Task: structure prediction
Amino acid sequence: MLNSFFNWLSNEEPPTKVLEVRSENYISRPIHYRDDSMLLYGPKASSDKRNPKDKYYEIILQKPFTESLHQMYSLYRCENKEESEERFIVFKEKIPVYVRITKDCTVPSLQKLCDILGKNKSWTIAHMVAYFGQSELLNHPDIQKHINDIAIQSGNVRMVQSLISMNCSLDIIDREGNSVYHYAAASNKEIVNAIASKSLNSLNIFNKQGYTPLHMACLANAPDCVRALLLAGADA
Result:
C-alpha cells in the first residue's frame, strides 16, 4: 500500500507493468545486454531528474520489424543490477520464442507472460502453453518436447485429451524412471482415465525410487487417482 502511494506521488509505473514505448526514447541509454529482440538497458551515466526512468535498468522487447521499426515494450524496470540481469536471463530465453510461436505481441499478452514467469522462473515454453490451455499450439516443434509430462502435471484434462488425439507417445520414460502414469497419479482421475483409454503399457512399472504409479497416488493422498488406477488394472 505504501509503495503504491509513493508510486502515485512520483507518477512512476509499477516496475513489473508492461508498457509500450518508442525506440527514440532509448537512443542515449547504454545497452547492458542484447539477445536477439530482447535488450537490457542500463541507467544513464548522468541521470536526468526530469525522467525517473533514466536511473533504472530496463528490460525491453523489440516489436517484430515486420510490424514496427519504432515500437517496443518495457517489461521490467529496476535499480538493482543483479535482479535485472536475473530477470533478463529468464525473459530472453522464453518470451521472444513464445511471441514468435503465438504471433501475439500485445501489452495484455506480454503482461500475462511476464507475471507468470516472474512467479515460475524455471518454466519452459511448454509449461506456459499448458498453463494457458493453448492446445492449438501442440504441433509446434518447439512445444513438443516434454509436453506430455507438463500437461499432465498442470492437471489440464483438455490438453491431455488433445495430445492423445494427436497420437503423442504415452510410453516415454524419463531419466528418473517415471512414466506418464507416475505424473498422472497426483493429478486427477479424468487424466488417469484418458491415458488408460489409450495405453496401459506403463501402468505398473517401477521408477528409480522403487515406486509404481499406484504408490505415487497413495503418497500424494489422491484417492480418486488410486481408484482410477485400480480400475485401469494397477496391481503393484
Remarks:
- Confidence is low (pLDDT under 50) at residues 4-10.
- The two ends are 54 Å apart (CA to CA).
- The CA atoms of residues 181 and 203 lie 6 Å apart.
- The chain has twelve helices and five strands.
